[in-house]
């Protein structure tokens, strides 16, 4: 409690609390009162109109549903499917026609949500009923039921003769039935179509006449009998009471609205006429007044509740807001008043003490400024990085001018120029201390550039981008001519980097600019400008002030044919061939356009085509590349050999390994199944296509798998197996050559030719030669 009430003794705190409470609560209070007195009556009128409109819309929807149902049944009854020939149909022998009748009924049954079932009665010599499947009527009572429907109703009519005789149980109401005679418009029909409505769906449709699904809704025929009612056991007594009350009203009025007291509730009752094809129905909707006016009561309660809550919330929020406003002052006083004067004297002026302490802190601030000056280089680099990366974009030119001046730059009447130093050939460099490490090489480049620049420029800053490129911001008086000095510096930097790192250098010099906000664009300008370098590892200086970009673009050339060869080599897993073709691809690009801006898009396009091939094979690139951003990597490659190695080792090899891991097992199982099938059926007429069908694949896939797994193609494997079987029969049996040919699946003439092709002599000579050799061996052994 002491913590909560802390500060109440302060007059500053109390004034703030009362002001915030007044500001927070008064607008809400005025709004609540205005809404309550001005809006409630309007909402009540709108709700009553909405209630009447909703009932009319529900009646229109009800009428539309029944109209659509009548038209649909009439349409189907007049179809040629149900002409006079149906009575002479042999439903068993002509099963196709019988099945079509059933399908037609099923289609009609599914054409409207109110339909529960459809029956078709045919009064043939052997009466039948479709439900919708064909059934023969053998029970006389069942036959009389359907026959009475056919004879006692007009061409199309609503069945209104099956009603509940139990006045207290609406659940026993029979569902509505719509009948249509067959043949339609005939004075002597020979059948009838009986459409039974779904009782629950009709009940749900009637519920649309009662807003909020409260009260009662039902349909009456012209004899004041209940045809259908919304399914609610609690409203049965109300419905029967309304049925009696409407008996007198319906004689004098076709439609109307009145209120009715029933039990402890007052109902708003609406009724009207619905014209059907053969009768006139009456709809009745009774809704409790409480359900109509409940939103008004709810709104009133909500407004009162919100006002009370608003007062409580305003009180709490005002207290905490006052505490929040006062808290910095209290904390500041505790920090400033080291002698605890504030706690001993509550009437002491807080702001006077703050003023005194401010003067003391100002002196300490000067001391801190001196200490910060030692960290100035780091601060300048940090500011420059933020400026380049766009974090200071919202600062104005003057604000940036002041900050740079604060950090020690002289920028008044000065001009800015940016240089990009890109080293190339790290993977070919002989400098062993670099160890092919880009971070080490990048740091070495930055240190060398900084050391060389110290002897050339008074104001400069080096930015290490850690991608073998270094940025250099140079600030010089606007009246000086430094372009020559910039070129001399570039040549000196090249000389030192060539000697120390044994790497080639591309230096890009930006246009000069006097605006600080243009510095990020100068850095981006040189990063883009170095793409105009020749795509060779050689020293180059690109001066954007003298560069004619319109002549830097060679004619667009892309070696599509080599790309196709690369993709084909990848498909069949030839990594070495792919590497050779990639070298040819790059050489072709270089032969038509030697600028990096022409080479880089071609390599990016090639990678995109390879990735498309990977996805086309059913493998996700994420699985192959382990989530790496490959397009970002390819954009940062600037050397031919590095491009070849990257595409081969980082892209193609992982893909081929992944593909082989997924395909080899399946291919092996496939070939094993085919080999077993061939060994068991080699004497039959076997082909690649028949074997492919046997294992559920296509001939191309099977042929490719056979060659990869077995080492020979399909036809050679089959031929070798048959020749081996034939050799065994020739040597171990006395079967005739013709019989042996048939035994191994060949015709006689073709068998002789294929046997001679493989062994160099016909079957008969082969048998004779081997028998003679065997005889000689036996003689010699004796």
Automatic annotation (TrEMBL):
What sequence ranges are listed for the domain HTH araC/xylS-type? 672-769
Assigned keywords, A-Z:
DNA-binding, Membrane, Transcription, Transcription regulation, Transmembrane, Transmembrane helix
Any one Pfam family here would be HTH_18
From which domain of life does this come? Bacteria
- What PROSITE patterns does the database record attribute to this sequence? HTH_ARAC_FAMILY_1, HTH_ARAC_FAMILY_2
Entry's transmembrane regions: 17-38, 296-321
Q: Which PANTHER family match?
A: ARAC-FAMILY TRANSCRIPTIONAL REGULATOR, HTH-TYPE TRANSCRIPTIONAL ACTIVATOR RHAS
Q: What is this protein called?
A: AraC-like DNA-binding protein
Organism of provenance: Evansella vedderi
